[in-house]
Task: structure prediction
Amino acid sequence: MIKILFLSFLFLFSFAKDGVQTYGEVKDGELFVYITNNNLFDITYKYIATYDELYPMQPLPIEKSLEGNTTTLLSKFMILGKQYKLTNSYVWTLGNTNSIHNDNYFYRLPYALGETHLVTQGFHGAFSHSGDSEYAVDFGMEVGTKIYASRGGLVVMTKNDGYKSGPYRGFAEDANHITIKHDDGTYGKYVHLKQNGVAVKVGDIVQRGDFIGYSGNTGFTNGPHLHFVVFKGKDTKSRTSIPIKFIAKSGFVINPIVGNRYTAVK
Ligand SMILES: [Zn+2]
Result:
């Protein structure tokens, strides 16, 4: 997302529909620019400024992560003349580059206890598990299968109204999903849920094993399944997925193998 804010004179704001906004304030001959992230999730942003009659007090552009529900000083400029002008623009993406995944955590399989599902695509899967989905896992299951949280946390994003699907990246935005922030600042994402199949809302705190929604076949998909991935911020444009471990009836699963079936246990 790119947002542009034009600032001049005393006290100006930008209101952003995406939950991120900047505003400026003049104090003692200096212009202070703040950034607010009103989302529950962390973001990683890149801030670029063009200006006249101002002198930046820090190197630009700035690339940083910002926690959810937080305001911070973004940049500071010395005002050199009365006709000063500042144009801010920024891009951001969900995720914090400073988060460190708890690699000792064993995830619960995201379906009902005692149920068994087939892994249809594992880590590095050729169909779509590359880039920021490198360590995603697909579990084949009928549309409407109950989904349970693999790990507890805060629900920070959902999409519930998608209904299109197809085996092309162009359908990716149509996928319904739930994104949960874990206590180590990483995120678990449950994707391809059926239309109106999301049973939680942004702001809910869910525990490991809580029912959260129904699987489906929405978005970039070639058949009904659940896509599950854990990620953190990588840079201002992308995220990095994390190799995770599961606990199954057969024991610990370090690398879910395509064609294997795994039974959910607590
Ligand atoms: Zn997948």
Observations:
- The chain has a mean pLDDT of 92.
- The chain has two domains: 2-94, 106-263.
